[in-house]
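Changelog entry

Holo records now carry the ligand SMILES as an explicit input line rather than a separate metadata file. Below, a converted record for pyridoxal-5'-phosphate, shown in the new format.
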Amino acid sequence: MGYKISIEKTKKSRIGNVDFNNLPFGRNFSDHMFIADYYEEDWHDCRILPFQNYSTHPALSSLHYGQAIFEGMKAERDADGNPIVFRPAKNFNRFNISADRMAMAQFPEELYMNAMDKLLTLDRDWIPTAPKSSLYIRPHMFATEEFIGIKPAENFRFVMFTSPVGAYYNRPVKVFIHDQYIRAFPGGVGYAKCAGNYGATMLPVREVQKMGYDQILWLDGVHKRYLQEIGTMNIFIIIDGVIITPGLDLGTILDGITRDSIIQLAEDEGYVVQERDISIEEVINAYYENKLEDMFGTGTAAVLSHIGEFHYKGENYELPPVEEREASNKLMKRLTDIKSGKAEDLYGWLHTVPVGIYSNQ
Ligand SMILES: Cc1ncc(COP(=O)(O)O)c(C=O)c1O
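Structure line, unchanged by the conversion:
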């Protein structure tokens, strides 16, 4: 079924207020946004508007009971200046997987892509061109039932907006491996990109940040022993030349799109990649045997971020200098070159926004 998108363009662009040479992550918002509302079992009122606030009912069910999910993608410009987006179909799939887990309405793929293409065409001047910068695309959906009482909602709002961003981390990351708090457990919602997964980590993250760390590297919720992921990134370890990352089978971590891409690129480069359980003891033993070559995180926001140091049970462990980390540096370059259209897109990962997408279709 075709969904029509109406477009109301902004009368006055705010782009002149933004310093594109100094883009903090997630603080600037482009001129337009997309909204669609779900009621009577279908999506209605699909519209692009000037970026603006909306009002909410005090009993808005997502604010009380947490039916809220989101995604994150990035757009850059190719050599001809056209907007390109990295693997948006995979983000779309994950969006609906999250929606399913949270008992929310499925969103149609054609509408998701069309809304994204139109927004990027309208706001193409907001796509930064400086190295390490891009236009972050944030789709999200929340329950809009105006009702007090716990039941799956039947009304939802889908919103997509964009934000020009610079680098998420500007230096190697310091992570704290927690042996008290946990993020997810089998049977839970770890694999979904739902708001509550992030809300539950705010207190532990604030505590470790006060101690000088950037993020938590989570251990599994059952044994508190196996590495899981970082709050915004999947985790990779290189021990004795082998690249290891936790598997997805327990459903406790996010099926990261950057993770999937790095695994593919690493295999292409001839590295051995293992998706398997990796315990903190194995990492620490490798450290003392001088076999722990690298630890890094991967994510859309953070791309590939090296871990400079990790903390576990009162000890700090320092990783080798970033310049010495040949494999991850090579993989980061491969990935950023593909994302920006500089390297050949062997796997059809890049989505190019079609020209002439302004029409109200
Ligand atoms: C908890 C968590 N893990 C991993 C990732 C990395 O996933 P992706 O590479 O798809 O951005 C993210 C970011 O989306 C995240 O929030």
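Spot-checked after migration. The first helix runs from residue 61 to 65. The chain has eight helices and 18 strands.
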